[in-house]
Design the sequence.
């Protein structure tokens, strides 16, 4: 959505569909962070540290209006109150976002009201309608939205994209080896192991391809950013077991994970200058252990 936004191709309304309610809500939150983040990273991911990201994480951003069913359904009175809040929200910035959860529970009156609202011309208003079933949403409302059906394996898609960007197949033995090493290193960092600096020699001494280190450093930067994300209430991109990942992330503060993300980002840049990945990582981890 961010790429579409900077190209002015963003639709005015999206219907996000997934049978997993938590997934669709997290996807909506990620989309909002991508669009409202004040200091996005170079790869267009949200920083998770600016005031906008933090307010979104706690569901109290003034530019965002949330509509959640009261009881069994979304009602017309809620729509009217939300429209009023939306007008207020425009005072805080150029863009406002309306998030409707469980869109399929709307009463006919509420759906008709939202339909009129969606049809109101306003280039800086975005609707995110969340549902478990597109077919249960009023057809006329559905027709006004761009429908996005979410994948059931978000983490695997993110990993596939990362590895593919280096020409790797996630199913290959070398990719599995890199994943295992990254998980071990993440755990070692979280536990602040005294022998951390020795990790490269213990684990990576047989790696001969410099590209393996490039993938590892990129993935570790992602893990460190994920550690920040879970501490402010978001899910990790690159780690399937969110609970276990969050428990490890809590061992260090956000500032420390930010420093580590920068460290691995710098290691990745140095790999493009043809440095020895093993030596560079060993030196970096020795400095971290001091």
Sequence:
């Amino acid at each position: 959505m961010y790429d579409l936004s900077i190209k002015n191709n963003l639709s005015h309304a999206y219907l996000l569909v997934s049978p997993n309610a938590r997934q669709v809500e997290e996807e909506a939150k990620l989309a909002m962070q991508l669009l409202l983040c004040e200091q996005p990273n170079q790869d267009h991911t949200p920083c998770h540290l600016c005031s906008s990201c933090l307010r979104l994480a706690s569901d109290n951003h003034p530019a965002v209006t949330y509509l959640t069913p009261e009881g069994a359904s979304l009602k017309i009175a809620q729509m009217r109150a939300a429209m009023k809040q939306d007008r207020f929200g425009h005072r805080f910035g150029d863009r406002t976002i309306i998030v409707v959860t469980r869109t399929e529970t709307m009463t006919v009156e509420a759906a008709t009201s939202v339909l009129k609202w969606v049809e109101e011309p306003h280039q800086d208003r975005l609707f995110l309608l969340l549902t478990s079933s597109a077919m249960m949403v009023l057809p006329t409302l559905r027709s006004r939205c761009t429908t996005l059906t979410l994948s059931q394996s978000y983490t695997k898609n993110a990993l596939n994209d990362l590895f593919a960007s280096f020409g790797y197949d996630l199913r290959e033995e070398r990719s599995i080896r890199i994943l295992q090493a990254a998980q071990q290193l993440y755990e070692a960092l979280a536990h602040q192991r005294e022998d951390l600096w020795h990790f490269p020699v213990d684990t990576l001494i047989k790696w001969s391809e410099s590209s393996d280190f490039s993938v590892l450093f990129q993935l570790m930067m992602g893990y460190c950013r994920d550690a920040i994300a879970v501490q402010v209430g978001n899910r990790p991109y690159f780690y399937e077991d969110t609970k276990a990942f969050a428990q490890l992330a809590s061992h260090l503060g956000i500032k420390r994970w930010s420093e580590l993300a920068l460290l691995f980002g710098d290691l990745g840049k140095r790999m493009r200058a043809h440095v020895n990945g093993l030596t560079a990582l060993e030196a970096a981890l020795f400095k971290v252990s001091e």
User: Anything to note?
Assistant: The first helix runs from residue 2 to 6. The chain has a mean pLDDT of 84.
